[in-house]
Amino acid sequence: MRPIELDSLFRPVENLPGIGPKLAEALARVTGREDADDTRVVDLVLLPPYNLIDRSKNPGIAHSPEGVIVTLTVRVDRHQAAPRGRANVPHRVFVHDETGELALVFFNGKQQWLEKQMPVGETIIVSGKVDWYNGRPSMVHPDHIVPEAEKDELPLYEPVYPLTGGLSPKVLRKAVASALTQLKPLPEWCDRHFITQHGFPSFDEAVQRLHAPEDAADLDPKAPARRRLAYDELLAGQVSLAMVRSRLRKLPGRSIRAEGTLRGKILGHLPFSLTGSQDAAIRQILADMTSEDRMIRLLQGDVGSGKTAVALLTMADAVEAGGQAVLMAPTEILARQHYASIKGPAEAAGVSVDVLTGRSKGRERTEILGRIESGAAQIIVGTHALFQESVVYKNLTYAVVDEQHRFGVHQRLRLTAKGQAPHMLVMTATPIPRTLVLSAFGDMDVSQLTDKPAGRKPISTATIPDERLGDIVGRLKSAVQEGKKAYWICPLVEESEKSDLMSAEERAASLRKAFGKDLAPLVGLVHGRMSGEEKDRAMTAFKTGETRLLVATTVIEVGVDVPDATIMVIEHAENFGLSQIHQLRGRVGRGSEASSCLLLYHGPLSETAHARLAVLRDSEDGFRIAEEDLRLRGEGDLLGTQQSGMPGFRLADLSAHGDLLEMARNDARLLSETDPDLSGVRGQAVRILLYLMRRDEAIRFLRSG
Ligand code: ADP
Ligand code: MG
């Protein structure tokens, strides 16, 4: 239950005075909430301004510098209304102070309203920029006009918030100000000693300060109030991860001990020897698995670095120790592909391999489920279907999850809910900088595959404007005639699957036409709307060479392995994430032939867009590309905030607050050891923090755990 002291902060913003449904929707957009109902007072309270307008200068009319915002106390002398019918002549109001005279200028102003706002003979306060022309000062459309009696209404330092359509700065500022009135002092969730040591203000002071910047120093991420709030946000993130994590670890892991006999046999059946980093990763994983503590490890390796072999060889030990191992892939195609590549060497070593996906139906499914329950199935490859209710494992001790960035925290929990606590290896091709690993996954241990298997040829990458599409198609046609294979990746159009599909279908049709009657059958198509069988057929046809140009949408194909494909065309490359292109590009260059990647873009491109594509042209280092991506796009996009359950930060900025992240992590870990249920005094306060930072989902794990 949400602590009652938070009730007023969790009222919908619509309850604030002057905010109707339209505005509430605009506020949802600004604060990044899903909809108006879900936009609460607290979301405004924690909306940080990114700039400020300083209105504190009050030099007098004659001493007001050109183009600088000043605030002036003036007496109204006379109005000079715009002549009727002459819209381009402004309404002028002449005012003075003891230093001189000033004209306030209004275009298209309503005369009546202006005269009422600024009655002749009254003293008013105006704030805005002064322009000097021919030695005469004027102020066009003052930002503020208030009667002297309401002087305090005029903000001397005005915070500037991000805006969105349908919101004026003034309205947003008012909304934030009225949200702030709901903020009361709250119990301190940070360690007192820590607070003093860092000179942090209390939470409510920090929030008030956040919204009342007085100079650039207050806006600096290093300002104490900003650091305090960044810390709070990071702490909430780390605590919720720690809670999930401790739940994952709650059931003790079972120590897996094996001689490595099966592993040796399988290795003997692989057509290559391991790279140094594959070997090292395998040793790290096995060391973890022999311990009683449950392993939760991330295996990070660029596309083509050979993660599957690491998975297979470590699964061999789990099987030898008498357990079952699963390998979960995000898509049907990937699962089937893993199955195909693992089956040979595993079965040659006497290890059984089964595959279970959403497509396994009827008798086949019943049989597989029976084998899983009896323990006859030793390695099981599949999709989410592996963790449905109806799947009962005899003795699941090890789970490998491929392409982690597509799975969120929830899937990880579901995996554990099978009642057993398998050791877990999470494999990802997205090279995630350490700070991101920490913020997204908590303190997961990480193994990295840093060297590529021998014999890989570099991929030559070119960026080409799509006006030259005709040339490209011509070249592709001759390449295909020479027996080469190529992928053609179609862009993500908007967000709807339907339009993706259409663009892929249209592209396939136009390529077939360009190829002419004889070659048209060589053009294949695969997309997300196809049934499993259809996808399989399309992939197999491409593998066997029945088709040689495969038009595809991105969504499903990440990870396919067709070693003799040597050309990759990516349409509208400017719409893709850099890491995404890098991964797609990794589909070629796997065999002995030289490969190329053509990035087609639709010009004109912005400078940043050019720079981004250039990074891909100049580098094949996935890690560097990911860091550039991060730098150019911000951290949320790298993993895809939605898919990964990766927290998008509002108050914390990892480039400025990296040190705080480490501290928050340690703090969270300590807390989860000393007060795992968050029931102590500090624990209760931390619960409040979790709600404030919208990380309260994790609290449910406590209760159910
Ligand atoms: P990823 O890390 O992208 O999942 P895969 O596991 O699919 O990479 O491996 C890519 C290709 O490299 C596969 O065809 C695999 O058989 C091959 N491979 C893996 N390890 C080695 C190695 N040590 N030497 C040579 N080829 C390897
Ligand atoms: Mg892979």
From TrEMBL:
Keywords: ATP-binding, DNA damage, DNA recombination, DNA repair, DNA-binding, Helicase, Hydrolase, Isomerase, Nucleotide-binding. One of its GO terms (biological process) is DNA recombination. Coiled coil: none annotated. Residues 288-449 form the Helicase ATP-binding domain. It catalyses: ATP + H2O = ADP + phosphate + H(+); Couples ATP hydrolysis with the unwinding of duplex DNA by translocating in the 3'-5' direction. GO terms for molecular function: 3'-5' DNA helicase activity; ATP binding; ATP hydrolysis activity; DNA binding. It is an enzyme of class 5 (isomerase). Residues 471-631 form the Helicase C-terminal domain. InterPro entries: ATP-dep_DNA_helicase_RecG, DEAD/DEAH_box_helicase_dom, Helicase_ATP-bd, Helicase_C-like, NA-bd_OB-fold, NA-bd_OB_tRNA, P-loop_NTPase, RecG/Mfd. Its EC number is 5.6.2.4. NCBIfam families: PRK10917.1-2, PRK10917.1-3, PRK10917.2-2, recG. Belongs to the helicase family. RecG subfamily. Plays a critical role in recombination and DNA repair. Helps process Holliday junction intermediates to mature products by catalyzing branch migration. Has replication fork regression activity, unwinds stalled or blocked replication forks to make a HJ that can be resolved. Has a DNA unwinding activity characteristic of a DNA helicase with 3'-5' polarity. This is ATP-dependent DNA helicase RecG.
